[in-house]
Design brief:
Length: 370
Amino acid sequence: MKIGCVKEIKNNEYRVGLTPDNVRAYIAAGHHVYVEMGAGVGSGFSDAEYVAAGASLIEDAADVWRLVDMMVKVKEPLESEYPLFHDGLILYTYLHLAADRQQTDALLAGKVRAVAYETLQEADGSLPLLAPMSQIAGRLSIQEGAKYLEKRFGGEGILLAGVPGTPKANVVILGGGTVGMNACKIAVGMGANVTILDVNLKRLEELDNMFGAHIQTLVSNDSNVERVLKEADLVIGSVLIPGGSTPKLFKAKYLPEMKDGAVFVDVAIDQGGCGESSHVTTHDDPVFIKDGVVHYCVGNMPGAVPRTSTIALTNATLRYGLQIAANGLAAACKESAAIRLGVNTYDGRLTCKNVALAHGMAYTDIAELI
């Protein structure tokens, strides 16, 4: 199979879909790999390393799209890339279609066979291709939140950990999944007061066993959320419905009740965000202030640490990519229930139930198409 990788064009996105080591793995399996010149520079991988690994370097990204059977990316294609879609193209990347009707329509019109990292799911319920970026985003959320609590960014002007004789910051984490747990780990490590909320009592028990007296766990409901937000200095939104739109737990009516200069980091913004007042921002212009609350809603947070993010992501994606390349997508879906769940569009049909629900569109079971 002909495998492609192009430079990401999203704002301040420096990650890359394939490392030179990944290229070697595909070449060793008998495939051809085409890489756009400069694709890996932002993550610290030179063109010479890709050539040494066996890749063919292509100057124009459009030529890579036209040449390949499977395109391996990091972020969703942008509007300028839609004309490069072609029938039967396998697109293997993050898509987040529930928050993007335009992209959904483009993939369907182009008859692209799109495999979304965020919905590929193993039998135990784990999301192996979302987990590494969730780990990074969770840890980054505290790092970024602490920065934007600084006065010059519009924050309260407090130090997350405080110092002897001063109060620590109150960190509230909405959602106890991978993002929430990693945010909790960093916040606890920095010495903040941490409260984490989730609807799953079993998960709260796990978090309590993990962090003990260092955190307060609460059942997530409107009353508890509203109460803890009044004293919050930093709020992390880390709610996830795989492939679906995120519920709006952080309601606009809470903002006037919060402290001036409190910070809200909406890690769920890729899926539409868990804040009613959220809208997507970029690394160039990451925050806005609404009713005195600083909102950080960057849609590709892990892109800020591309070297770490690329290696973590491709460690996870390679296994499934090799399986798709070896067998073709239809056969790979028959062999792997996880890959089957990753398919969001296939030959003009929408095959992810949560995306179909989000847009009120017709859903087709992938089993009917393969």
